[in-house]
Specification:
The structure holds 2 protein chains of 2 kinds. By secondary structure, chain A is mainly beta. In chain A, 3% of the residues lie in helices and 44% in strands. Chain B has 7 helices and 8 strands. Classes of the chains: A mainly beta, B mainly alpha.
């Protein structure tokens, strides 16, 4: 007897992001097996990320290098200057990149960290004499300089010796803090109050926390200031000091063993929390403090194994950014050219952020400007996170559902029709595929979304206005074939200048016999 | 003078023979009186000064010798209740080159009892020891006292240091180094307090050592003084003894004086009697002589 055709709606598929931790079978269709170059848009749909709009027009100084770090310098005089590093140079500018490296200053690595402090921007990298750029004459910053200069060369600089050539620098509580030295992984130095160029005398000092690590030994990776705490991230543990506004008397507030930070540049503040990438995924320090030594909520619980795999094979470095306007935290595994995007607007039931993946972007650094722009560094120079093209090239959005059983994995399904509801993506080529029983068999089809036409209104000789109809939605049905116990639906689309989001997928299937 | 009457003896007449006889008798009588006075004088001299041979040897002692014996110093000894003794005795008399007898010097003898002597020796030994201690270089003692003071507070210092260390470790601040304080403010405060205690103890040790030496000197002086207490007490005890002896001597002296005066009075009475007798004899003889001579020449 013929079975009734069942209509199953997958509403807002993948709006919970990727989940590779739970069983692929009988998984919530709100998760995705794959969500590449995707974000969760403002309506909670999986959507294509924005592209890279390259600003740089002259990257001669960068050569074949990549922008490894970007920082926007601002001072009280409203001077703004974007500094970046790459090709073993200190660079400024976003359109024409200008070499700002001090004369006769030799650099062979681009692992700089830049911080703004007291009308100056400071450059720190392990084993290198720190640099400073400051355009305002001030007794507390060593005077004005029109160029990036050695910190030790400014007026009244003191104590700027190799002992403070740290890889991590933090501007907090009215002073600079530095740590992670070539031969000393447990000492933190702090400068004199309001004087980032004075590292001895005054209220400067240091603390050796080698006896403080909760598991006996660790190495400082990063520093952070949060909630009047000085947070010291080790590789496998965290040490928290309170009262850091007076470093001579600051006291140990808490220690967390078993959770550390894998890279200085993965630490980001979200206002409420401090996010950082640990060896087991993305963690939140705010929650860590609340829960103390209790199990820590894993913000990347749905992709933990993926992150661990990426971490174990990463050969270069990590860069991250928190962008409140886009509501995401990005962390890029540069050596593998993979960026993970965590939507921070809310968490799933297990406390995880919704995660998507951006492979092959070639992004190598980020900074959020005060105006809300997200600047992205790459081999192309500096660009903005805007538009839907990567340096005028299309990129591919991918979605794969988990294995769907429609309530009964034991029954054969005959997929008859798929009808994805796609918002936007005008003129985009869509590749739709379906696979049965974990890709034992499959079928696919492609189609091109209709181009959104514009209407000409009030046509006359001199004034032609063009208007579109707003958000373009397509619901193109696709006939399908084959059968199987489980079904996975995959969709790919080349993003070519238009935003695209997947609203829902309507599945028409015939339920068959029991397998 | 013994020859003046020879004129008489050589008389020149019969008429004058009677007169001469009478005169001679008178002269003889006067001469007798005269001789008697001489005898009385000799006798008085002999009784008062003693009778000496021509060579000067004392043949018969007189009052002087008797009084000399009676007035001679009587040795005596004072013995205290604790056994100390004070003795006074004349030494042996000697004869000098001129043959004069030189009386022996007086010997004064102070003897403590055995216990007192032991006490005195012990105190002198202690005093010597104290003076010895008081005269050594104080630096070594200062160091010794300081070390003892530090030894007494070192456990507490160590406990405080450990407590601070533990507190700093508990606060994760053990590795703090600051330009303002060197280490931590608490560490500086403790180091400062310890240094102050160190300095205070050092000064205290110096002060103590000085005071101790003063005390030792005072103790030595006290012991030295106390070592002479038995002797002093003995001397104090001698005074009443000497007073008693003096009283006795005075009594003897007075007795002797009385004896001498009585003796002299008796002798004087005897002499007066003899003198009277001599005067009578002399007077009679003189009268007879005058009368005989008067009739002879009238």
């Amino acid at each position: 007897m013929a079975q009734e055709l069942q209509s199953i709606n997958l509403v807002a598929p993948a709006f919970k992001g990727i989940n590779t931790e739970d069983s692929a079978l009988a998984q919530d269709p709100s998760f995705a097996e794959v969500a590449d170059n995707a974000v969760i848009d403002q309506r909670g749909r999986i959507a294509a990320r924005k592209g890279l709009s390259v600003t740089t027009t002259n990257k001669t100084v960068l050569g074949s290098g990549k922008i490894r770090a970007i920082k926007e310098f601002k001072n009280d005089a409203a001077t703004t200057k974007v500094f970046s590093v790459g090709n073993n140079k200190i660079i400024s500018g976003t359109t024409t990149l200008v070499d700002e490296t001090p004369g006769s200053y030799s650099i062979s690595a681009d692992d700089w960290k830049m911080v703004n402090f007291n009308n100056s921007i400071y450059f720190f990298q392990r084993g290198y004499a720190p640099l400073i750029y400051n355009t305002i004459a001030s007794g507390t910053s060593g005077g004005a300089n029109t160029d990036v200069v050695l910190l030790s060369s400014v007026n009244s600089a003191s104590g700027v010796t190799s002992a403070i050539y740290g890889n991590e620098v933090l501007a907090a509580y009215g002073r600079l803090w530095t740590a992670d030295f070539a031969a000393d992984k447990s000492t933190i130095y702090w400068s004199d109050l309001l004087s980032g160029h004075k590292w001895n005398g005054g209220s400067s000092g240091s603390i050796d926390i080698s006896k403080v690590w909760p598991d006996g030994y660790d190495e400082i990776v990063a520093l952070s200031a949060h909630n009047n705490f000085l947070i010291v991230f080790g590789k496998r543990s965290i040490v928290v000091y309170s009262g850091a506004d007076n470093p001579a008397t600051m006291a140990l507030q808490d220690t967390v063993a078993g959770v550390g930070c894998i890279s200085r540049d993965t630490v980001q503040h979200t206002g409420l929390d401090v996010l950082f990438l640990s060896q087991t995924g993305l963690k939140s320090f705010g929650r860590t403090i609340q829960e103390k030594s209790m199990p820590i909520s894993n913000l990347s619980g749905t992709i933990t194994k993926d992150i661990i795999r990426l971490l174990t094979t990463e050969t270069e470095d990590f860069k991250s950014v928190y962008h409140p306007e886009e509501n995401f935290y990005l962390v890029t595994f540069i050596g593998q050219d993979v960026t993970l995007c965590f939507d921070i607007r809310g968490t799933l039931d297990d406390g995880s952020y919704r995660a998507t993946r951006w492979p092959g972007t070639s992004f190598t650094s980020y900074v959020r400007q005060d105006n809300g722009d997200l600047l992205i560094g790459s081999a192309l120079g500096i660009g903005k996170y805007s538009g839907y093209l990567d340096n005028n090239l299309e990129y591919r959005f991918k979605y794969s559902s988990p294995e769907l059983t429609f309530g009964d994995a034991a029954k054969l399904k005959f997929l008859k029709k798929l009808r994805p509801t796609i918002v936007g993506g005008s003129g985009a080529l869509v590749f739709l595929s379906w696979t049965y029983d974990f890709k034992e068999s499959s079928g696919s089809t492609t189609y091109t979304l209709a181009s959104q036409s514009t209407a000409e209104f009030n046509v006359d000789e001199f004034n032609i206005g063009q208007f579109s109809t707003g958000e373009f939605t397509s619901r193109i049905p696709v006939n399908t074939s084959g059968s199987g116990g489980t079904l996975a639906i995959n969709m790919e689309a080349d993003i070519n200048g238009k935003e695209l989001s997947l609203q829902e997928i309507n599945v028409l299937a015939l339920m068959g016999r029991t397998i | 003078m013994a020859d003046w009457w020879k004129f008489w003896e050589d008389g020149e007449g019969a008429e004058t023979a009677l007169g001469g006889s009478i005169a001679a008798a008178g002269l003889a009588l006067a001469n007798q009186g005269y001789d008697r006075l001489g005898d009385i004088g000799d006798k008085a001299y002999a009784r008062m000064s003693g009778k000496f041979s021509d060579t000067g040897e004392l043949l018969t002692p007189g009052l002087a010798q008797e009084l000399q014996g009676m007035m001679e110093f009587q040795p005596y000894t004072v013995t205290t209740a604790t056994g100390g003794e004070f003795g006074m005795a004349p030494g042996e008399s000697t004869v000098d080159a001129a043959g004069n007898v030189v009386p022996g010097e007086m010997n004064y003898q102070l003897d403590l009892s055995e216990k007192e002597k032991l006490f005195q020796d012990a105190q002198l030994g202690r005093a010597e020891s104290m003076f010895g201690l008081a005269s050594v270089d104080p630096a070594a003692r200062e160091q010794q006292v300081f070390q003892r003071m530090m030894d007494s507070i070192n456990p507490q210092r160590e406990r405080e240091r450990l407590a601070l260390e533990e507190r700093l470790q508990g606060q994760g601040r053990l590795g703090v180094q600051t330009s303002m304080f060197g280490g931590t403010p608490e560490g500086l405060a403790m180091a400062k307090a310890q240094e102050e205690a160190y300095s205070k103890n050092m000064l205290g040790a110096m002060e103590f050592a000085g005071q101790e030496q003063q005390r030792q000197a005072q103790l030595g002086s006290g012991m030295l003084a106390s070592s002479y207490i038995p002797q002093s007490q003995l001397l104090n005890a001698v005074q009443p003894g000497m007073t008693a002896a003096e009283q006795r001597r005075q009594a003897i002296s007075e007795q002797t004086q009385s004896y001498g005066e009585t003796y002299a009075t008796g002798l004087e009475a005897l002499l007066q009697a003899a003198y009277g007798q001599a005067n009578i004899a002399g007077g009679i003889g003189s009268s007879m002589t005058t009368a005989a001579l008067g009739s002879l020449f009238s």
